[in-house]
From TrEMBL, chain A:
CDD domains: ABC_cobalt_CbiO_domain1. Residues 4-245 form the ABC transporter domain. Signal peptide: none annotated. It is found in: Cell membrane. The lineage of its organism: Bacteria, Bacillati, Bacillota, Bacilli, Bacillales. Forms a stable energy-coupling factor (ECF) transporter complex composed of 2 membrane-embedded substrate-binding proteins (S component), 2 ATP-binding proteins (A component) and 2 transmembrane proteins (T component). This is Energy-coupling factor transporter ATP-binding protein EcfA2. It comes from Sporolactobacillus mangiferae. SMART domains: AAA. SUPFAM superfamilies: P-loop containing nucleoside triphosphate hydrolases.
Automatic annotation (TrEMBL), chain B:
This is Energy-coupling factor transporter transmembrane protein EcfT. It is a multi-pass membrane protein. The keyword Membrane applies. Keywords: Cell membrane, Membrane, Transmembrane, Transmembrane helix. The chain crosses the membrane at residues 26-57, 107-128, 246-264. Pfam families: CbiQ. It is found in: Membrane. It comes from Sporolactobacillus mangiferae. The keyword Transmembrane helix applies.
Length: 285, 265
């Protein structure tokens, strides 16, 4: 059974004023255990509004949100417990750190779950290991860490709740190439080891090309495209209309094809593109 | 983002009230406040109420919405009016133990109720029809003569403009941090008062950190552009009085004297 299922979700801001804006328009999709789903869209496409519906921070104007088959707004009494199952990591999560040690900050979520001290401690260490930091960080002041380390501590704060779906809003924003690759790789490891699903919200196509299985494209509150990563990237024209781009490597292949070379343009990862180009040399040579 | 109309939320529009010069609106609001406190008789109070509806009409706002936004203030207004009912000496109408209700007291209470409601609604109109930046610019120009008295008007207005500029950012950030901590299971507004205050620490600490970070960044950015006080700075959009502003002044002066005349009827 799907962990999260959205059915015809609509949401508008500023109803009845001149600021009224339909932020979400008829959104439906579902997430199964172990999924790696990417939600992409330009600024203002409704991405951030959408993820706030996944753990009950916002209530849809119409439509339903099901968590494990139960309607979040009519069949569940304890909506707070949903937030432990659907872990939400906001944009620039390092700005939400507040404790004086890394350990205490990561423990905030597990403590709110009402776990005992032993369990909390174990989860903090486990979460810290997932983001590639060792136990020496536990007693350090989070505000003295580097930007990348702070981000990883903040993500660990959500991982420590052992969510069955992890939702991340632009987790790689403002990081350099190595920082990006590291965080994505750690998230992928978390997904494989824990069996949790990951929803990655981004406008960076290169981020999702390597890892995402499915992609949803949002444009002005509507779902424009939805499908496997390769099928979405093959719609380069629609993506362009939404202010998005295909991964850099796919762009190279499209240009090659435009020059009349027989390459397939649905290769989205570096390895696949490499094979495609090498094939060209073999056939040509 | 707030989903309901709140007191003071600017609503862009093109009604006559929107197009008046902010200086005109500030001065006329002061006029209006004085007028409200000069109105003494039933007739002039009713006149004020009619005026208020006319203003709302000229601002193209819905009266229902404007009054609904004042609702949170009603307990305060009623309380003030009630106190007066009991404390004004005069001809007794009703008395119970040490409480005396007098005719004069009832009238004063009623007067206060009308005055305060009209006052709050009237003052809220300027913020509905004027953007905060326009208000700040208007205030700066109105206060600019004070610069001769060594009042740092341009620095004050710079501070005010920066504050106004960053209030929405801070409020967005506040909401985002609240959402983030809620997503980690934080709950607010539950339990004992001390617990409630403590529950806001995870929000307030990041908010202060970010406010300081922004302040440092902004200070650097301002300095990098060679800002050194506001002396001699010019404006991109200068304010100009138009014919409608003069008309508004004339109309308000007439209304002002009408209110005083109605006091004697």
């Amino acid at each position: 059974m799907a962990i999260i299922e959205l059915k015809h979700v609509h949401y508008a801001y500023g109803v009845g004023t001149s600021f009224e804006k339909q932020a979400l328009n008829n959104i439906s999709f579902s997430v199964d255990p172990g999924d790696f789903l990417a939600i992409v869209g330009h600024t203002g496409s409704g991405k951030s509004t959408l993820i706030r519906h996944l753990n009950g921070l916002l209530r849809p104007d119409s439509g339903q949100v099901f968590i494990h088959g139960k309607d979040l707004w009519s069949q569940m009494k304890d909506r707070r417990s949903v937030r432990f199952q659907i872990g939400l990591v906001f944009q620039y999560p390092e700005t939400q750190l507040f404790e004086d040690t890394v350990g205490k900050d990561i423990a905030f979520g597990p403590k709110n779950m009402g776990l005992n001290e032993q369990e909390v401690k174990q989860r903090v260490q486990e979460a810290l290991a997932f983001v590639g930091l060792d136990a020496s960080y536990l007693e350090r002041n989070p505000f003295r860490l580097s930007g990348g380390e702070m981000r990883r501590v903040a993500i660990a704060g959500v991982l420590a709740m052992r969510p069955s779906v992890l939702v991340l809003d632009e987790p790689t924003a403002g990081l350099d190439f190595d920082g990006r690759a590291l965080i994505l790789q750690q998230l992928e490891q978390f997904r494989i080891k824990s069996g949790a699903a990951i929803i990655l919200v981004t406008h960076n196509m290169d981020d999702i090309a390597e890892h995402a299985q499915r992609v949803i494209v949002l444009h002005e509150g509507r779902m424009v495209l939805s499908g496997t990563t390769a099928s979405v990237f093959s719609e380069a024209d629609i993506l362009k209309q939404c202010g998005l781009d295909v991964p850099q490597i796919t762009r190279v292949l499209i240009k090659l094809k435009e020059r009349g070379l027989p390459v397939r343009t649905d290769a989205i990862t570096l390895e696949a593109a490499e094979r495609e180009i090498l094939k060209l040399f073999r056939e040509g040579g | 983002m707030a989903r309901d109309l709140t007191v003071g939320q600017f609503l862009p529009g093109h009604a006559i009230m929107h197009r008046l010069d902010p200086r005109t609106k500030i001065l006329l609001t002061f006029f209006f406040i004085i007028q409200v406190f000069l109105a003494k008789s039933t007739v002039s109070l009713c006149f004020l109420i009619i005026l208020l509806f006319l203003f709302i009409f000229f601002a193209r706002l819905s009266a229902g919405k404007v009054f609904r936004a004042v609702r949170p203030m009603i307990p305060v207004i009623v309380f003030t009016a009630l106190i007066n009912i009991f404390y004004v000496p005069g001809d007794s109408v009703l008395h119970f133990a040490f409480l005396h209700i007098t005719k004069q007291g009832l009238f004063t209470g009623f007067t206060l109720f009308v005055r305060l409601t009209v006052l709050i609604v009237g003052c809220s109109l300027i913020t509905y029809t004027t953007s905060l930046n326009a208000l700040a610019a208007g205030l700066e120009q109105l206060l600019s003569p004070l610069a001769h008295l060594r009042v740092p008007v341009s620095e004050l207005s710079m501070t005010l403009t920066i504050t106004l500029r960053f209030l929405p950012s801070l409020s967005d950030e506040f909401e985002q941090i609240v959402d983030a901590q809620k997503s980690r299971g934080a709950f607010f507004d539950q339990g004992s008062p001390i617990r409630r205050i403590k529950s806001y620490f995870p929000v307030l600490i990041p908010l202060f950190m970010s406010a300081f970070r922004r302040a440092f960044e902004l200070a650097n950015a301002i300095e990098c552009r060679c800002y050194h006080g506001g002396k001699g700075r010019t404006k991109m959009n200068t304010l100009h009085f138009a014919g409608r502003d003069i008309a508004a002044f004339l109309v308000f002066t007439a209304l002002f004297f009408l209110t005083i005349i109605f006091n004697f009827i």
